[in-house]
């Protein structure tokens, strides 16, 4: 049965709520701990990484249990319905550390609520990803679903990256997190309602935990794509984690450019994210067209190559007092990021079908868990890499928001958000071209 327009759009809506949490997590946790709780940047990076690595342990379990769930509303809905409440509550608690506590107490508080929030995130994200391979096996419908998903994800990025930092500055981190919880919960719950009559696999999987993941890892093309997507995500996550520092130290508004008023009203960080999202939204149709013309892998490689060029140009421009010029660069960054954002998610459900056709096992939850593993690992490693890089360069933590930094520390920050990510993306390009493409051709033939 073909999906209706409402079902396709409704499925995509959930990602808006999910992405708000992801962006807030990437953008604000490291700066919250270092700039407002007085935690040294190296320790803050290690703590963030440790929690996210713990979170990855839960991925296979949630995937396994969601595949084996049987109920009135299908295998995925119960997990998503409850998980988004846990995710939202954990996020609010994370940014609500009581004033006056010692550093160790602050760390315990942040870790406890960060763990809670990431468990809730997993309960939503793993079943949600599994739905893309479950409610339709039509590649064209999947492309349409992914288009809606990335459109709503862009709105989530805009809210998480452009609105929340400004709110955090004006009303505090805790109130800013609380303000967006209705949107997070509402997006996921409305998505479940919109897809309540969509096709789904009712029968729970009977394969054992080890059997499930044995089948997933037997799909070699999928495993390689997971690893390469993780490499791409590491580059993007380093940029995202470093952007709040860049907005404070490398992009200083001179007050005499076209967007100076917007930078003052939104904060520089919010303006840069708004520009990034505009570029991402503008590029979605372009990447769909290029995927049809060049093939999905060819379009992805082109997008990553353009990303590298742009990062080099950004390296040459920073530090800068011209927020208009830098905002223009971030529009272009959003357009190149559209390839990374959209195309891998349109590829991987097709690889799920290979295993289902070969074995008859409907284990989309297991595939979704492994697919997110590479992404989560990269997001976990990135803050630690950034934190250690800045610490080695002598970065100074503070409880006052901004403190004078040495030229060496600022140079390390500049490299961490430009040339280092560019080098990582080059590794991904080589892997896609030399390893993944030949394997995928054989698997999908």
UniProtKB/TrEMBL annotation:
**Which controlled-vocabulary keywords does the entry list?**
Membrane, Transmembrane, Transmembrane helix
Pfam families attached to this UniProt entry:
MFS_2 (PF13347)
* Keyword check for Membrane: yes
List all membrane-crossing ranges: 12-33, 39-58, 79-101, 107-126, 147-167, 173-194, 222-251, 263-290, 297-315, 321-340, 377-395, 415-436
InterPro entries in the cross-refs: MFS_2, MFS_dom, MFS_trans_sf
Q: GO BP, one example?
A: carbohydrate transport
Report the GO molecular function annotations: symporter activity
GO cellular-component term (any): plasma membrane
Task: Outline the extent of the Major facilitator superfamily (MFS) profile domain.
Answer: 1-440
Q: In its keyword annotation, does this UniProt entry include ATP-binding?
A: no
Quick one: signal sequence residues? none
Q: Which family does it belong to?
A: Belongs to the sodium:galactoside symporter (TC 2.A.2) family.
Protein name as annotated: GPH family glycoside/pentoside/hexuronide:cation symporter
């Amino acid at each position: 049965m073909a999906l209706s327009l409402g079902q396709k759009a409704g499925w995509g809506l959930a990602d808006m709520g999910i992405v708000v949490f992801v962006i807030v997590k990437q953008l604000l946790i490291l700066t919250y701990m270092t700039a407002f709780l007085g935690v040294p940047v190296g320790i803050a990076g290690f703590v963030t990484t440790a929690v996210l690595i713990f979170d990855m342990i839960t991925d296979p379990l949630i995937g396994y249990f969601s595949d084996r769930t049987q109920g009135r509303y299908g295998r995925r809905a119960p997990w998503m319905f409850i998980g988004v409440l846990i995710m939202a509550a954990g996020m609010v608690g994370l940014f609500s550390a009581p004033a006056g506590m010692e550093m160790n107490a602050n760390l315990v508080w942040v870790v406890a609520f960060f763990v809670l929030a990431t468990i809730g995130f997993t309960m939503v994200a793993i079943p949600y990803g599994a739905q893309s391979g479950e409610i339709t096996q039509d590649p064209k419908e999947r492309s349409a679903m992914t288009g809606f998903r990335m459109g709503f994800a862009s709105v989530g990025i805009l809210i998480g990256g452009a609105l929340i930092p400004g709110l955090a500055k004006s009303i505090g981190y805790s109130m800013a997190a609380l303000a967006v919880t209705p949107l997070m919960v509402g997006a996921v719950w409305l998505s479940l309602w919109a897809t309540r009559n969509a096709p789904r696999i009712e029968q729970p999987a009977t394969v054992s935990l080890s059997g499930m993941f044995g089948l997933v890892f037997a799909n070699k093309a999928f495993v390689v794509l997971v690893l390469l997507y993780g490499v791409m995500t590491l580059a993007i996550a380093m940029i995202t984690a470093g952007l709040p520092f860049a907005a404070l130290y490398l992009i200083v508004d001179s007050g005499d450019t076209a967007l100076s008023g917007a930078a003052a009203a939104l904060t520089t960080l919010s303006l840069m994210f708004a520009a990034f999202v505009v570029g991402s939204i503008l590029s979605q149709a372009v990447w769909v067209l290029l995927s049809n013309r060049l093939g999905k892998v060819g379009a992805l490689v082109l997008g990553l190559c353009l990303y590298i060029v742009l990062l080099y140009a950004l390296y040459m421009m920073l530090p800068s007092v011209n927020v208009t010029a830098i905002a223009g660069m971030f529009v272009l960054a959003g357009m190149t990021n559209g390839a990374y954002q959209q195309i891998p998610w349109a590829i991987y459900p097709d690889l799920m079908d290979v295993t289902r056709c070969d074995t008859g096992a409907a284990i989309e939850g297991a595939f979704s868990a492994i697919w997110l593993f590479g992404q989560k690992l990269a997001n976990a490693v990135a803050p630690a890499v950034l934190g250690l890089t800045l610490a080695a360069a002598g970065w100074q933590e503070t409880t006052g928001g901004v403190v004078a930094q040495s030229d060496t520390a600022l140079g390390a920050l500049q490299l961490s958000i430009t040339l280092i990510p560019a080098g990582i993306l080059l590794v991904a390009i080589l892997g896609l071209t030399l390893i993944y493409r030949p394997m995928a051709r054989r698997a999908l033939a």
